[in-house]
Write a structure and sequence with these properties.
Blueprint lengths: L1 H15 L3 E4 L2 E4 L7 E3 L8 E4 L22 H12 L2 E3 L5 E3 L2 E4 L17 H6 L14 E8 L4 E8 L12 H20 L2 E10 L8 E12 L2 E10 L5 E11 L3 H4 L2
Antiparallel strand pairs: 1-2, 3-4, 5-6, 7-8, 8-9, 9-11, 10-13, 11-12, 12-13
Bound molecules: decanoyl-CoA.
Length: 262
């Protein structure tokens, strides 16, 4: 029973991305699901606090990684607040209506908790995570939030690069920069054109990005041609005064069956 309980919570941790750890004297659990079920693992392990169990083994309330957390710098929070405020506009006589901008929520699977992928075993399916959201330690990897503006066919990402993204000493790895560019341009392309895959990404690195700094990743639609969506991208310092990186991307619309073995 004890072993079964431990395997289950460990499995849940892998599936939900939530934190469970084994202490010297047993299982220490920071339950994030709240359920009414009390599991007593018995001595020497401490009582596992109530867990909410659903018939579907995935959390129904996955973490939205694009919301502020304790690792965000003042600059990151200020920029988040700035763009978040543009998501609503005041109307005459009081009240608010939706503004031109949207904050895009972000989870650790591309399609929220969908299984899929050609030839993936069930174990791999359960463990698969979105590359940019697979570091659980807050502030260590990619901290970012994307805001999109459908009317203007563009988006902006506020990105704080954590210490695990180091390339040259004290600066962000070029592959990490390519990753956030691919994610932001891909998000814009799929927001405007539906399911797409990156066919081409061309990057010019103009000036290094200091580790821990906050930068803006701007992406705009250049044009569409049939199944092809062309986008541009610039990574700048938070105040816009310095250009760090420029890129262009080509995204090709796909039938999702392309990914699911059809
Ligand atoms: C919502 C959450 C968002 C999260 C964001 C994450 C973003 C991450 C995005 C990725 O990283 S995707 C992973 C990396 N990309 C891949 O693995 C793609 C691998 N390549 C493919 O699967 C196929 O090559 C591809 C789907 C891109 C295209 O194959 P298709 O058979 O569907 O299309 P086809 O080869 O017929 O090409 C269609 C058009 O695109 C053009 N094209 C395709 N690849 C090209 C290329 N590389 N360069 C220039 N043009 C290209 C091609 O010439 C043609 O132009 P025309 O219509 O004018 O004839």
């Amino acid at each position: 029973m004890l072993r079964r309980g431990f395997q289950l919570v460990k499995g849940l941790g892998q599936i939900t991305g939530q934190k469970f750890s084994t202490g010297r004297n047993g299982i220490t659990i920071r339950p994030l699901l709240s359920t009414g079920t009390q599991w007593d693992t018995g001595s020497p392990f401490q009582t596992i606090r109530p867990l909410t169990m659903s018939p579907w083994p995935f959390s129904t309330q996955p973490r939205d990684y694009s919301l502020p957390n304790a690792s965000w710098s003042e600059e990151m929070k200020r920029l988040y607040d700035h763009y978040n405020a543009l998501c609503e506009v005041e109307v005459e006589g009081g009240g608010k209506r939706k503004g031109p901008w949207r904050r895009l929520p972000s989870y650790n699977r591309t399609i929220k908790y969908a299984t899929g992928g050609r030839c993936l075993s069930k174990v791999l399916q359960a463990k698969a995570r979105l590359f940019t959201r697979n570091i659980e330690e807050q502030g260590a990897g990619f901290e970012y939030v994307v805001f999109s503006n459908k009317q203007e066919k563009r988006c902006v990402c506020v990105f704080q690069a954590g210490h695990l993204l180091e390339g040259p000493p004290g600066h962000v790895h070029g592959g990490a920069i390519a990753t956030i560019i691919d994610s932001v341009t891909g998000t814009l392309a799929s927001y405007l054109s539906g399911p797409v895959m990156t066919a081409n990404l061309s990057i010019n690195y103009r000036s290094p990005i200091p580790l821990g700094s906050v930068v803006l990743v701007h992406s705009s639609l250049e044009r569409t041609e049939g199944r092809k969506t062309f986008v541009t991208c610039q990574v700048t310092s938070a105040d816009g005064s310095k250009l760090h990186t420029e890129a262009t991307g080509l995204f090709v619309s796909i039938n999702v069956g392309h990914l699911f073995g059809a």
